[in-house]
């Protein structure tokens, strides 16, 4: 699983670099409006943040490290490296996607509402770009399936002994298959992938402040973390700022939506 995700991540970045190389990216305009926006859309913020780090997917890296035997203060180096690498790569990919879309839209093109992401690649690089988008979507879909399935199934293991872990490991393959089959069935029956992606991103954005708040509270409890660990004050302050902002953005989104 780890090697598959690494290869697919390289494929995604290579494809995005190609698309950006064949389009005229308005970098100065993007930088200006990033730090001085003419308007603030809380729904977009919640959706983008939720799609990036929201919901339970925030726990996937931690669960993977725990399963790999990384525990305690000795494993903090690996935790920091994994967190920084993960959010770094995710952020770079999203910025590249945004710049590609911005280049196409500012050139005067109107995107197809049914499949706007594919339209960006088709307009930027013709049919070749459209086919490349299919490969990009496949790579993104595979990484999402791997990460989401692993995290969802790992939440079902509440055992604290060897016998319980052994029982869970025997059931894991069937749980993984059931999760994928149910998700595929849900997608087949509902359809509308673009709309579902936005809605799920928004829901994940609403979950984020709850999950992050719980983690921040837990990080300050010596009963959980032990006497040796002290959570950095700066990270706690920044974390609670994010909780407050995402809570406010989530409430605003709900008011606007309903």
TrEMBL record:
It is found in: Membrane. Keywords: Membrane, Transmembrane, Transmembrane helix. GO terms for cellular component: membrane. It comes from the Bacteria. This is Manganese transporter NRAMP. One of its GO terms (molecular function) is metal ion transmembrane transporter activity. The chain crosses the membrane at residues 7-30, 42-62, 83-108, 128-153, 174-190, 196-220, 232-256. Pfam families: Nramp (PF01566). It is a multi-pass membrane protein.
